């Protein structure tokens, strides 16, 4: 490339997010992001599906989008409608579904349809960084509701709704990740889902249900989606193939009333979500989704066991966590003296990448000594070695844990 001497900086509009850092390499021990297990990518099945569907329908790639209209490839929407009905109790049809480029695009589209600067939304106090960052960038006030082991606490939600109403504020939505919450791993029980719907209905606030981890529950038993329990169509439901098949495919979906889909479609000006990805997914998923996902779940569960064992061995009782019922993350509490933003920097220098708690919470002080560990993508050996290095770094920086692998460490060693 020619020497870049032209200066664009005076042309940049105000309000852009901070510039991205240039990528150099991934950390040797990578516990960040929502990545999947590379060993479980169903490569052969995807190759066979791609070959079959390309032979049959390949010429259709000559047009933008897919032949079955702007809502997405119909066989994929039919697969989804059947699956959501079977697994999540939802009574949607393929026509209630819009295929999008990952559920991140679903977040952007729904935010684009509903939000403007100065609006208020309600969100779990610990939540997905991608959702929190979007709200911050949009200038939206995100009211965090604390969680317990059943997800968002309804007493705190009731209080927040009442307090906002007293100030004449009607939140634009209640955003929740009810089924294997990111990052806490909690699953909201059915009674609480009903309570949530009642509060939402009483206050005239829609629910924005982000359900991308629902296929990754160890025993395969999920509660009905909140969408399935709604009696008045006040739930926007989004999901993704990122966690069940592969995030690099960038295929997600929105299930919502046409009033919302029509607006989201009008904003979706990207020329269509990748048609080949949709076609391959439909071809692969119809016969193989269930078998693939049960195998994936078994692999993830054994990685979680390895992670919890490594944490117990290396951190002892200084690392507190619950055994999540599914997913790809462990949410860990370290003693109060540990600042995980600082731990992150020191760990990175030692080749270990973690997600520091303050980036996953509406309350940075609450997140200060917490961290999120993704166990799906590192190998079992990387989990063991990476956690040993993390404990060593943490002890050097904060004196915690005082003992590693049940061996007392000499001060200053
Ligand atoms: C809760 C939640 N929503 C949405 C996403 C975005 O997923 P994708 O765009 O890959 O579908 C993620 C990714 O980690 C997530 O954890």
Mean pLDDT score: 95
Fraction in beta strands:
5-15%
Poorly predicted segments: none
From the helix content, strand content and strand pairing, which structural class follows?
alpha/beta
Termini separation: 48 Å
Helix content: 40-55%
Instruction: Enumerate the distinct ligands.
Output: pyridoxal-5'-phosphate
Q: From the alpha-carbon coordinates, what is the Rg to the nearest angstrom?
A: 22 Å
Order of helices and strands: EHHEHEHEEEHEHEHEEHHEHEEHEHEE
| Lateral arrangement of strands in the main beta sheet | 2-10-9-8-7-3-4
Give the total of beta strands: 16
Strand count, sense and barrel status of the largest sheet are:
7 strands, mixed
> How would you describe the shape?
globular
| Count of helical stretches | 12
What does this structure look like?
With 413 residues, this protein is α/β, with parallel strands linked by helices. It is 41% helix and 13% strand. The protein contains twelve helices and 16 strands. The protein has a seven-stranded mixed beta sheet with strand order 2-10-9-8-7-3-4, sandwiched between helices. It has a three-stranded antiparallel beta sheet with strand order 11-14-13. A two-stranded parallel sheet has the order 1-12. Helix 6 (190-203) links the parallel strand 7 and strand 8. Helix 3 packs across helix 8 (258-267). The longest helix has 41 residues, at 275-315. It is globular. 44% of the residues are buried. Bound molecules: pyridoxal-5'-phosphate (PLP). Residues 34, 102-104, 128, 130, 177, 182, 210, 212, 240, 242, 247, 252 line the site of pyridoxal-5'-phosphate.
């Amino acid at each position: 490339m020619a020497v870049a001497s032209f200066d664009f900086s005076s042309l940049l509009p105000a309000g852009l997010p901070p510039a991205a850092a240039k990528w150099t390499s991934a950390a040797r021990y990578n516990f960040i992001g929502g990545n999947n297990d590379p060993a479980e990518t169903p490569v052969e099945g995807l190759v066979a599906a791609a070959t079959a569907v390309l032979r049959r329908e390949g010429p259709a790639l000559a047009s933008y989008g897919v032949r079955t209209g702007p809502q997405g490839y119909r066989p994929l929407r039919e697969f989804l409608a059947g699956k959501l009905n079977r697994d999540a109790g939802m009574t949607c049809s393929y026509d209630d579904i819009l295929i999008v480029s990952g559920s991140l695009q679903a977040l952007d589209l729904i935010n684009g349809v509903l939000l403007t600067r100065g609006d208020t939304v309600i969100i779990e106090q610990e939540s997905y960084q991608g959702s929190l960052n979007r709200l911050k960038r949009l200038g939206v006030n995100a009211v965090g509701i604390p969680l317990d082991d059943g997800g968002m606490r309804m007493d705190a939600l009731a209080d927040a709704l009442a307090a906002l109403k007293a100030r004449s504020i009607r939140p634009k939505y209640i955003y929740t990740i009810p089924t294997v919450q990111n990052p806490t791993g909690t699953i909201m029980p059915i009674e609480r889902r009903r309570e949530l719907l009642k509060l939402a209905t009483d206050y005239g606030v829609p629910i924005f249900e982000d359900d991308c981890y629902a296929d990754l529950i160890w025993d395969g038993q999920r509660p009905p989606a909140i969408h399935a329990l709604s009696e008045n169509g006040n739930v926007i439901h989004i999901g993704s193939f990122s966690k069940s098949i592969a995030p690099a495919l960038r295929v997600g979906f929105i299930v919502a009333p046409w009033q919302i889909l029509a607006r989201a479609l009008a904003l979706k000006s990207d020329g269509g979500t990748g048609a080949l990805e949709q076609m391959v997914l439909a071809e692969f998923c119809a016969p193989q989704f269930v078998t693939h996902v049960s195998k994936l779940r078994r692999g993830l569960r054994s990685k979680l066991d390895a992670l919890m064992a490594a944490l117990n061995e290396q951190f002892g009782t200084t690392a507190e966590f619950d055994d999540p019922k599914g997913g790809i993350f462990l949410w860990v509490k370290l003693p109060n003296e540990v600042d995980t933003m600082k731990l992150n920097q020191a760990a990175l220098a030692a080749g270990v990448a973690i997600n520091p708690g303050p980036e996953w919470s509406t309350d940075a002080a609450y997140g200060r000594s917490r961290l999120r560990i993704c166990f799906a993508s590192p190998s079992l050996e990387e989990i063991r070695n990476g956690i040993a290095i993390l404990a060593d770094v943490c002890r050097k920086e904060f004196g915690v844990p005082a003992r590693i692998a049940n061996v007392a460490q000499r001060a200053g060693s």
